[in-house]
Specification:
Ribosomal Protein S5, domain 2; alpha+beta; 2 domains; about 40% helix; four-stranded antiparallel β-sheet; eight-stranded mixed β-sheet; about 25% strand
Length: about 375
């Protein structure tokens, strides 16, 4: 899918050129899984896999959405819509709903989109769709939203309308990303800093397990409640504790007996993962990618045994890499229960790595493994015609 293809599709449907094109990238998260909604630190980046949206205002009050990849469409009135049975539609409606709640006047609009973000792979196609939609509406209707306001509105749309109690990381990375940079985000203050991740010797390779998940229907919200249960216990002992961000690791360990076993393991993982983000930034400053790879393996181990959000397929993919000297680190990425593994691979060995992984995955699961080499790119971009 390209911008030109999306424009052509738009013209074939509506008989006119769109007003704007929006490139809304997906994201990867290198370290810092499930720490965002615990108000900790994350280390994401926008990538070169993106959704292309072409948009134009209408002379009436209607919404016309067309998904090229799904070969599906939606139509309704901007002042009279409700949650749709089509899940993809709700990401678009959600941000309109939140903008209207803030008093912004959104008129009728045509939206056509398609892209190259593999669905269900943990690359946050939903956040890209929400962020891109808001950036486009901001341009079309002169809303005057800042980048940070776009991020916050996108998150609210997913929380309040879609019903996914997600953190802010995905939208933040999609909007604020910079080429060849990772972004350390403080999910409590929303302060952020970019760190260079531009190595000529290593590539980031995604291995798509083809195990799909719907986070709305998964254990994601359960994990969040388990973390909150731990915070409630800690808060009674130390009232200054408001989130797992505030909890030292030795305190978690010392209070183990006060927690249910599952709650203890969830809290321990999150606190250690927040610490790993800090260490990761330090090793990136000195270009120690060997150490960074070991942090990735440590994250996966925690996701598998303490947070319990991996699956047999992603565990296999990560374990397989430990036999490959060309791989510095690997882990499951995203909300969990499938999706992609993220692999840090020596650049000269990428082709061999992909061939070996594809063959091993087919032999063990009878599934085709899709692999994607990704680069780090800028965040959402809007262009007028």
């Amino acid at each position: 899918m390209s911008a030109a293809a999306a424009v052509g599709f738009y013209q074939s449907i509506f008989g006119t050129k769109p007003e704007i094109t929006v490139r809304a990238p997906g994201r990867i998260n290198l370290i810092g899984e499930h720490t965002d909604y615990n108000l900790g630190f994350v280390l994401p980046a926008a990538i070169d896999k993106a959704i292309w949206m072409v948009m134009g205002r209408r002379n009436d009050n209607e919404l016309h959405f067309h998904s090229i990849d799904l070969n599906d469409r939606y139509q309704n009135e901007v002042d009279n819509f409700r949650k749709s049975e089509k899940s993809w539609v709700n990401y678009l409606l959600g941000v309109i709903s939140e903008a209207q709640r803030d008093g912004f006047n959104i008129g009728g609009v045509n939206v056509v989109f398609g892209g190259e973000i593999p669905l269900g792979a943990g690359l946050s196609s939903s956040a890209a769709l929400e962020s891109g939609m808001l950036a486009g509406l901001n341009e079309l209707f002169c809303l005057g939203l800042s980048k940070l306001e776009i991020v916050k509105l996108a998150q609210r749309g997913e929380n309040n309308f879609v019903g996914m109690n997600c953190g802010i990381m995905d939208m933040f990375a999609s909007v604020m990303g910079q080429a060849r940079q990772v972004l350390r985000l403080d999910c409590r203050s929303l302060d952020y800093e970019h760190f260079p991740f531009d190595t000529p010797e290593h590539s980031l390779v995604l291995c798509d397990s083809a195990v799909k998940h719907s986070l709305v229907d998964s254990e994601y919200n359960t994990r969040r409640r388990e973390c909150e249960a731990g915070v409630q216990v800690f808060h009674k002992i130390m009232p200054e504790i408001a989130s797992l961000r505030d909890v030292p690791l030795d305190f978690v360990l010392s209070e183990k007996k006060r927690l249910e076993d599952k709650v203890f393991r969830r809290c321990k993982f999150v606190v250690e993962e927040i610490m790993r983000v800090d260490v990761a930034c330090k090793v990136l400053k000195i270009n120690d990618f060997e150490a960074f790879g070991q942090l990735m393996y440590a994250t996966h181990n925690g996701l598998q045994y303490e947070y319990e959000v991996t699956c047999a397929e992603t565990d296999f993919l990560v374990e397989k890499t430990k036999q490959m000297p060309e791989v510095l680190g690997a882990r499951q990425m995203g909300g969990g229960f499938g999706g992609c593994t993220l692999n840090l691979v020596k650049k000269e060995a990428v082709s061999e790595f992909v061939a070996n992984m594809v063959a091993a995955y087919d032999a063990n699961f009878g599934l085709k493994l899709a692999c994607h080499v990704v680069s780090l790119e800028d965040g959402v971009e809007v262009k007028r015609y």
